[in-house]
């Protein structure tokens, strides 16, 4: 199987490649622009694998994309995106380019036969926000994104849907909740908290700290995508979640507890603009139709994650330096 992964030098994409390289008869091409969020160090352990190759290419650049598609692929698994909500609030421009135009360029390659099938990796944020007591999002929940990042992801989701309806191409969408694990960019909540806690630095908690996210260990997300490739139905959307809702304050306290650090490190700071209150996923569909469910408990996943960051502080600094250069 010839598999094209986009954004494989980022957090989730690199874990997905690692998982797929364990399979027989899979040859993987990773295309990544190596933005501030993507770094070759995330792929170091499989760089030399004979079934893997890397091409630095920007999905928004038609010429670079054409070069990648000189050969045909059986699958595209599309992770590449601008992924950080706070950055999208500062400036949405690149989010529209990468997340919408980049996705469109790939859809065109499926439409014109350069790739046979595609999975578009999306997010629960496209559904908007829930209040405490509301029912979790099903796949039928209307798309009501509240920040430029999620609006750009919703735009991409709708384009994918339109290409299925108009051209009948074999595409599927996954919408996952918050991932955590090794190699997640230092700007995201869990890595940031671990790093601050390790160095007894203050931990910025937005607003009242009671916003709720559903947390899933990254390897479980990758296994869900693999399951969708094997058993999913074209044109369908599959929610993926951890059945693990926690307030941000609870998550930070759990990390401090693991590290034996004091809760006084928590510093309440100004809230994120348009901060979604709660995400919660109803994943009945993937569970019953595709027989997928998460394998990691939050405490197992968090322990693994904290250990990794504690043992890989150099990686953290590499990413921060890379960010400064970009
Ligand atoms: P990430 O920011 O860690 O990685 C994104 C990767 O995409 C980087 O390697 C970056 O260099 C690459 N990229 C960005 N723009 C590009 C372009 N124009 N051309 C080629 N490559 C480009 O993101 P992540 O957290 O791994 O998320 C991966 C995907 O999963 C995204 O589509 C995101 O929306 C989705 N998702 C993430 C989460 C989460 O909790 N992290 C949850 C649900 C869905
Ligand atoms: O310093 C912080 N303090 C804080 O309180 C940061 C970085 C975040 N937060 C809060 C905001 C959110 O409620 O923690 C929560 C998680 O924040 P992020 O890690 O920025 O993730 P989130 O905004 O929930 O989005 C993530 O999950 C869905 C990913 O970044 C998206 O790519 C994915 O689609």
UniProtKB/TrEMBL annotation:
Keywords: Lyase, NAD. Gene3D superfamilies: NAD(P)-binding Rossmann-like Domain, UDP-galactose 4-epimerase, domain 1. InterPro entries: dTDP_Gluc_deHydtase (IPR005888), NAD(P)-bd_dom (IPR016040), NAD(P)-bd_dom_sf (IPR036291). Its EC number is 4.2.1.46. GO terms for molecular function: dTDP-glucose 4,6-dehydratase activity. SUPFAM superfamilies: NAD(P)-binding Rossmann-fold domains (SSF51735). The keyword Lyase applies. One of its GO terms (biological process) is nucleotide-sugar metabolic process. Residues 4-305 form the NAD(P)-binding domain. PANTHER family: DTDP-D-GLUCOSE 4,6-DEHYDRATASE-RELATED. This is dTDP-glucose 4,6-dehydratase. The lineage of its organism: Bacteria, Bacillati, Bacillota, Bacilli, Bacillales.
């Amino acid at each position: 199987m010839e598999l094209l992964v986009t954004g494989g030098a980022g957090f989730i994409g690199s874990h997905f490649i690692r998982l797929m390289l364990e399979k027989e008869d899979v040859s993987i091409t990773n295309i990544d622009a190596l933005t501030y969020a993507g770094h070759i160090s995330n792929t170091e352990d499989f760089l030399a694998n004979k079934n893997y190759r890397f091409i630095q290419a920007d999905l928004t650049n038609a010429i670079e994309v054409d070069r990648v598609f000189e050969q045909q692929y059986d699958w595209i698994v599309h992770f590449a995106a601008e992924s950080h909500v706070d950055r999208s609030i500062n400036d949405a421009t690149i989010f529209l380019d990468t997340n919408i135009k980049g996705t469109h360029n790939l859809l065109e390659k499926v439409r014109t036969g350069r790739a046979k099938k595609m999975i578009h990796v999306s997010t629960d944020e496209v559904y908007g926000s829930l209040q405490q007591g509301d029912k979790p999002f099903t796949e039928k929940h209307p798309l009501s994104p509240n920040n430029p990042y999620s609006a750009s992801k919703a735009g991409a989701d709708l384009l994918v849907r339109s290409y299925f309806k108009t051209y009948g191409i074999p595409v599927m969408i996954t919408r996952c909740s918050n991932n955590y694990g090794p190699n997640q960019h230092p700007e995201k909540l869990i890595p940031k908290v671990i790093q601050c806690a390790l160095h007894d630095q203050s931990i910025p908690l937005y607003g009242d700290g009671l916003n709720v996210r559903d947390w899933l260990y990254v390897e479980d997300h990758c296994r869900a995508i693999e399951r969708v490739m094997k058993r999913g139905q074209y044109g369908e959307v599959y929610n993926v979640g951890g059945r693990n809702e926690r307030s941000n304050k609870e998550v930070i306290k759990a990390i401090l507890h693991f590290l034996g650090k004091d809760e006084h490190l928590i510093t309440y700071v100004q809230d994120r603009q348009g901060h979604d209150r709660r995400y919660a996923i109803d994943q009945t569909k993937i569970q019953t139709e595709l027989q997928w469910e998460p394998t990691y408990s939050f405490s197992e996943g968090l322990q693994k994650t904290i250990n990794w960051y504690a043992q890989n502080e150099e990686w953290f600094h590499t990413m921060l330096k890379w960010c400064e250069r970009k």
